[in-house]
Design goal:
Two copies of one chain form a homodimer. The mean pLDDT of chain A is 94. In chain A, strand 4 and strand 5 form a beta hairpin. By secondary structure, chain A is mostly beta strands. In chain A, strands 2, 3, 4, 5, 6, 7 and 8 form a seven-stranded antiparallel sheet that branches. The radius of gyration of chain A is 14 Å and the shape is globular. Helix content of chain A is 0%, strand content 53%. Strand 1 of chain A pairs antiparallel with strand 6 of chain B, so a sheet runs across the interface.
Chain lengths: 118, 118
């Protein structure tokens, strides 16, 4: 059992001008180091955002707490809240007025759940 | 933007005698359908558990809410709580007295974050 933290104290503030008011706490090694996917918890402060950018690999964004808006290729903002996930294989941006904690998993070949129970 | 839910209403109760009082809400397609990893939110009711079993592929269990205990190959129970994760590539079991919600990501080649900020 190898233990590690992904709590607020373990998060870092990335040097990335696309991100405003967002910290990242990784769960996996990055794809750049050979991981099949990378997963991390992104914590958005109120007013935080990830500006529009290209998606280089497919990703799933799953809202763990709070609420916000995601807009994909068509630019139309869609509300998202805890318990909801979006699959993004397109340009997109993410923002929140009140704060948002999301798990993001990304990697080649990743596909969202499309099971029989939905 | 493809949307889906992983909330309580989207979770199912697996037919798996290893699991007691546990529901699963998948985020990805399963590895058996070609996904590089599979990720899901496991919700343990108070007293819920996953009995000891072999780990066929490496997994990361990240506690989103609540608390519980994980024991790995050595059988020693270790307390885990929200914000803490464990990497398991060994036989293990998971239990909780008070209830636990965890993200589990599993797949070949998966490795936990071992970054410079820890």
């Amino acid at each position: 059992v190898e233990r590690f933290s992904f709590g607020v104290d373990a998060a870092f503030t990335p040097r990335d001008e696309l991100l405003e008011g967002v910290t990242i706490a990784p769960l996996t090694q990055p794809v750049s180091l050979g991981s099949p996917v990378q997963a991390a918890v992104f914590r958005f402060a109120p007013g935080g955002r990830i500006a529009r950018h290209q998606t280089t690999v497919p990703q799933i964004l799953a809202v763990l707490e709070g609420s916000g808006e995601v807009s994909g290729a068509n630019g139309i903002a869609e509300a998202i809240a805890a318990g909801e996930a979006v699959f993004l294989a397109e340009d997109h941006d993410v923002s929140t007025r009140d704060g948002l904690t999301a798990l993001i998993v990304e990697g080649e070949g990743l596909e969202p759940f499309r099971g029989p129970n939905r």
